[in-house]
Each structure stands twice: as structure tokens, then as C-alpha cells.
Design goal:
single chain; about 450 residues; mainly alpha; Na+/H+ antiporter like fold; 2 domains; 19 helices; 2 strands; globular
Length: about 450
């Protein structure tokens, strides 16, 4: 939610730096920016990997970095720290969004959640089936889950390019679909991409998760406590064979979602505090004391979950995800072997799974659930709009690249084929999805829709 400018409430003159910062922030906060950054990182990775300096691309991301000291040090390639370390923060954010949606958002009741959940189930099952048809009985069948994921940043970013023409319920449908899809992806990673399980190494992590749950029940609101305990939990999961990004999701689930200080108490207390001191002569000491009281109260009025969500979004959208794309999207394309790569079972399975499987699965399961009266089509949304969003669901990218890495690891040639399939399927889905929505969405925006969007 965006409030009116500060100057509307306080006579605070702006400096040139303030004007510049606000203008930059306004542009960066546009929903399309994270998707555009991902696209830019992907193009840079492709150009770099296929340039005369392509060897330096691999050298950089496979250079070993040591974190720790003595026997406690971990020496891993840079791509590991990105895919297993930084992406644990990404999955932590995913976990926060899942918890918020399940408890307070569009998935908090079955009536609201039914359509996106059925759509997500179809959007995961049909792509996996298409991939399996091409790779059944082969070692590459392990990558069946690669085309089952949707990249929320890319999909929402592209949808935002159509501006106010997009009905608000359609935006909510896409966001809810992506969150339901994320839940499925997290379960797939936890259940199907766990190597040999070392239970002894996992037990300390489970115990510490129990400690975090206890801190939640005790209403401990200090984010630093949860962050400090998250590190040994991550190490425990890493040592156990369970992918460490799962730890990020589980830690997110332990963060309190209710603030210690209710909104009404914060509002009334702040007004009373300012009223009680309104007649005192102004002084720096009074200003500091009042601002410290209000700052502490405002922290207590926002739950740790929402503080973490608000604080992490910029770091993930503008830092972690572009870096992940840069490190993982560098597919080396050799003209001599390009045709063989394009026709390989992995490339075809991934590309067609994303492009055909997603649109068929999301649209067919949505249509069937409405026809069977298991769900309702949102008001103001037509089936042509659902089909356009189903196409955008075929933009797998970030999560698909991540699962491809889990599936094929150091099988460099097969991994390259999977990445090529992801790029092709995502590109085709994006182009056709925007084309369909461009033709089917209304040219003007109803006044009721504008007022509803401003209310949110």
C-alpha cells in the first residue's frame, strides 16, 4: 500500500537528492522492473557464455570461495553459494508469501483458493506428463519437474506491462496461481530431490526449528534471533542431504504473523503520546525521546513476517534473482550441435511442457473446476483472459532453472539442453500470452476497477 507523500503531513522541504531518490524509487517499484532485470541478466549470460570470453564465464562461477574458519570452513564454487545459499533467502521469501496467503490472503479460504489451486495442479501435472512422454525410461526422466514451475516475477512483470487494462481479479488469480505453484514446487524439491538422507545431521536442524516455533509461541518478535538460528538450520539441512533451500521455507513458517501491538492500540497510543506533549516547548531532547517511542511502537505494530517481507523483497527482486539468472542462464550454443540440442528429448520435453503443458493444464483444470461447480470464475474475468494467464504460466525460468540444476547437477550437456528448453518454452509462452491478453483485455478501465485497485 502506498501512502500520500510525506509533505502532505509534514512541512519538510525536499532536497535535490530527495527528488532524485523518489524518482528512482518510483521507477524501480514498477511491477515490470524485476522481470526486465531477469531478462537483462539472461541476455548478458547468453552473450557472455557464447562470446570469445565464454571460458571466463565458467571460470568465474566455478571458482571456489571459502566461508568460515578452520575446520568449520566451507569451500564451494561460487555457483553453489548462489544456488544453495542466496536461493535459500529466495525460498525464505517464498515461504513468507505462502504463509501470508494461507493465513490472511487469497488462499485463506477454500472459496477464494479453489480456482487457482485447481489451475496450479493442472499446470504442474500436464507439463510433467509431457516431459515424461519424451524421456520415459531414460536417465533424463529425473527432470520431470522442470517444466512444472512458474516464474512469478516474469509473469507478473509482463502482465503489468498492460497497465490498468488488466482486471484486478485477474491479477489476483495470477498471483494466487503462482503462490499455489510455489507450494507444489517446494514439496517436489523436498520429496523428490533429496539425496541420501543422513538423519543424524538433520536432527539438530529439526530441533532448532522446534526452538523457533517455541519462540513464535512466546511471541518473540526480534527478527535477528530467527536469522541467527536459521544459519545452523541451513547447515544441518545441507549436511543431511535435504536441499538447504527447504530450510528457508521452514524457517519462514516459524515467523510470527501477528504483531505484538494491535493497530488500534498503536494509533491511539501515538495520538495520546503526541497530545500529552503538544504543549511542551520544542527541543532536540523531546524530539529524540518522542521519535524513539514512536519508532519502537511502530516496530511492535508490524509483525516479524511482514517486516521480513517488506525488507527482503528489494534484495531478492533486484539482487538475488538477477544474480541467479546470470549464473545459470549461460547456455553455450554451438551451431554445429544446435539442431541436435533442439531435438533432444530433454529440450523438447521442457520446451513443450512449458509452452503446451502449462496452457493446457491451467486452462483445462480451471474450466473443468468451474463447469463441475468446484470453483467460480472471478467477476469481470472472461475465459479468454484465463487462457492468456495460462500462457504466462508457461514462463518457468527461475524455478525451472533451479530444478534443472537439482535434476542434472554436473551433467553439463543435459543441463544445457534443459536450460535451452526453459528459454524456448518461456519465450514462446511470454510472447503468445501477451499477444492474447493484448487482444482480449478491455481498452478502457471501468471506474469501479480503479477504485478497487486503489483500495488495495
Amino acid at each position: 500500500m502506498r501512502l500520500p507523500p510525506l509533505e502532505q503531513y509534514y512541512a519538510c522541504p525536499k532536497t535535490v537528492l530527495d527528488h532524485f531518490r523518489e524518482a528512482l524509487q518510483k521507477r524501480l517499484e514498477h511491477p515490470s522492473v524485476p522481470g526486465l532485470l531477469l531478462l537483462l541478466s539472461t541476455l548478458i549470460a547468453l552473450l557472455w557464455a557464447n562470446s570469445p570470453w565464454g571460458a571466463s564465464y565458467e571460470e568465474l562461477f566455478f571458482t571456489h570461495f571459502v566461508i568460515g574458519y578452520g575446520d568449520l570452513a566451507l569451500s564451494k564454487p561460487l555457483v553453489f553459494w548462489i544456488n544453495d545459499g542466496l536461493m535459500a533467502i529466495f525460498f525464505f521469501l517464498v515461504g513468507l508469501e505462502i504463509k501470508q496467503e494461507l493465513l490472511q490472503g487469497e488462499l485463506s479460504s477454500w472459496q477464494k483458493a479453489a480456482l487457482p489451486v485447481y489451475a496450479a495442479v493442472g499446470g504442474m501435472a500436464i507439463p510433467a506428463l509431457i516431459f515424461t512422454l519424451f524421456n520415459h525410461g531414460m536417465p533424463t526422466q529425473r527432470g520431470w519437474a522442470i517444466p512444472s514451475a512458474t516464474d512469478i516475477a516474469f509473469a507478473v512483470g509482463l502482465l503489468s506491462l498492460l497497465g490498468d487494462r488488466v482486471p484486478f481479479p485477474l491479477r489476483i488469480f495470477l498471483l494466487s496461481l503462482a503462490i499455489a505453484d510455489d507450494i507444489g514446487a517446494v514439496l517436489i524439491i523436498a520429496l523428490f530431490y533429496t539425496e541420501q538422507l543422513a538423519l543424524g545431521a538433520l536432527i539438530p536442524g529439526i530441533i532448532l526449528l522446534g526452538v523457533l516455533w517455541g519462540l513464535n509461541r512466546l511471541r518473540i518478535q526480534t527478527l535477528g534471533v530467527y536469522a541467527v538460528l536459521a544459519v545452523p538450520i541451513w547447515l544441518s539441512f545441507l549436511s543431511s542431504g535435504v536441499h538447504p533451500t527447504v530450510a528457508g521455507v521452514l524457517v519462514a513458517f516459524t515467523l510470527p504473523i501477528r504483531p505484538r501491538l494491535p493497530w488500534e492500540a498503536f494509533r491511539n497510543g501515538t495520538l495520546r503520546l503526541l497530545s500529552d506533549h503538544a504543549q511542551q516547548p520544542p527541543s532536540p531532547a523531546l524530539a529524540v525521546a518522542l521519535s524513539e517511542h514512536i519508532e519502537r511502537a511502530s516496530t511492535a505494530a508490524v509483525s516479524p513476517l511482514h517486516r521480513a517481507l517488506h525488507g527482503l523483497h528489494p534484495w531478492v527482486n533486484y539482487g538475488i534473482m538477477p544474480v541467479f539468472a546470470l549464473a545459470n542462464a549461460g547456455v553455450q550454443l554451438e551451431l554445429g550441435g544446435l539442431q541436435e540440442m533442439l531435438l533432444s528429448p530433454v529440450t523438447l520435453g521442457v520446451a513443450l511442457g512449458l509452452f503446451l503443458g502449462k496452457q493446457i493444464g491451467i486452462f483445462a483444470f480451471s474450466w473443468a473446476s468451474v463447469r463441475l461447480r468446484l470453483a467460480m470464475l472471478p467477476k469481470g474475468v472472461r475465459w479468454s483472459h484465463i487462457y492468456g494467464v495460462a500462457l504466462l504460466g508457461g514462463i518457468g525460468f527461475t524455478m525451472s532453472l533451479f530444478i534443472a540444476g537439482l535434476s542434472y547437477g554436473e551433467q553439463y550437456l543435459v543441463l544445457n539442453e534443459a536450460k535451452l528448453g526453459i528459454l524456448l518454452g518461456s519465450f514462446l509462452s511470454a510472447v503468445l500470452g501477451i499477444g492474447v491478453l493484448q487482444r482480449t483485455l478491455p481498452k478502457t478501465v471501468p471506474a469501479l476497477q480503479k477504485s478497487a485497485e486503489h483500495a488495495h
